[in-house]
Amino acid sequence: MTHPHAGQIVDGSFALHGFSVPFRFPVVFGEDIWSPTRPLFADIVRRLEPERRHRVMVVVDEFVAREQPWLQGHIEAYFAAHQDSLELAGPVVLVPGGEAVKNDVTHTFALLQRVNDLGIDRHAFITVIGGGAVLDMVSFAAAIAHRGIRIIRMPTTVLAQGDSGIAVKNGINLFGKKNFIGTFVPPFAVINDIQMLRSLERRDVIAGVSEAIKVSLLRDPDFFGYLEQHASRIAAGDDEPLGPVVRRSAELHLAHICGNGDPFELGSARPLDFGHWAAHKLESITANRLRHGEAVAIGMALDLTYSVRKGFLARETCERILAVLEATGLRLWDEALLDRQPDGRLTLLKGLDEFREHLGGDLHVTMLRDIGRSFEVTEMDDAVVADSLVELSNRASAAARPAGASAVMAARTTRPA
What class, spelled out in words, does domain 202-411 have in CATH? Predict the structure, then answer.
């Protein structure tokens, strides 16, 4: 609605001025995108200005380049085949893969230097091919160069194709805090090439499925049932279920971004961040020894156990969910959960303080009442969190249980159920 004083400077009164900008971007699933005979990539680049010849800078995750050594040659051949509408702006740029690329700001500035050297302007494109961390860093660099260069994301992991690659959030880490520097800028397009998943390590496949389990718990009980049915196949290395898993996860995350009314997170609620307050801190404590999806699985297990102890969630429902996480091959415990600060407080609990700061000062933590029924709490009981850790430690096998678990048990008088 237009305010009566919109566009006017009014003396002596309170006037609101506003405008809206619609964002539209395609999310496409395909295969063998870089085959010269497939016009999909060229069509996406040309979709707003079909008559122009478009300059494109291509950035590739080093992990992906190593596992798929043919990729750079295919990209160059594709641009040569479509040179009437596309120009490859310099050789393919390689950047480190994994969270390390977000932890060191020099990677971002090196990429910005490359953007400057190639003369990439606001009407050109940056295409990024890689895992979620690389997508985050490159998208952030694109967002701040010239106040925004159009970015096309080509995620290469289960987690990125089904979740983070579709998001409007970009960022890097600083001061030991996840995504301390970042922007909200939608991509120009997201292209999911299923072929890219075939060279992934099994560990990365399993870690990525954790975010699919998360969104199924929040939004789609039938999808959770599918994951429950296929969990052991995924753990065993059967890739057939992955296509439906990635696609449905992407659909649910996209529906949230486009339909929740707060895509740029101006409020404090983060309904899809189930398990993430602990996950983000675990990634920091372990210096990213844990993959993001692995940390999310542990964070979900902790919040599920906490929910049972607080009376939010039925014990049998919690056990069903934990069994699916385990059947998928995800661990529910890590010794880093026992790390303590000099004052004796569990380091993990500092994650609540950082999460509160990240949300804007008010704590909103997503919990479950049932599969498909989530809600938020605005405070967490440190003592119940500690008791929940005891329970998770007791659940772990004797061989995997950290030797220091008894220290936590001794610190609490409440015994696990």
Answer: mainly alpha
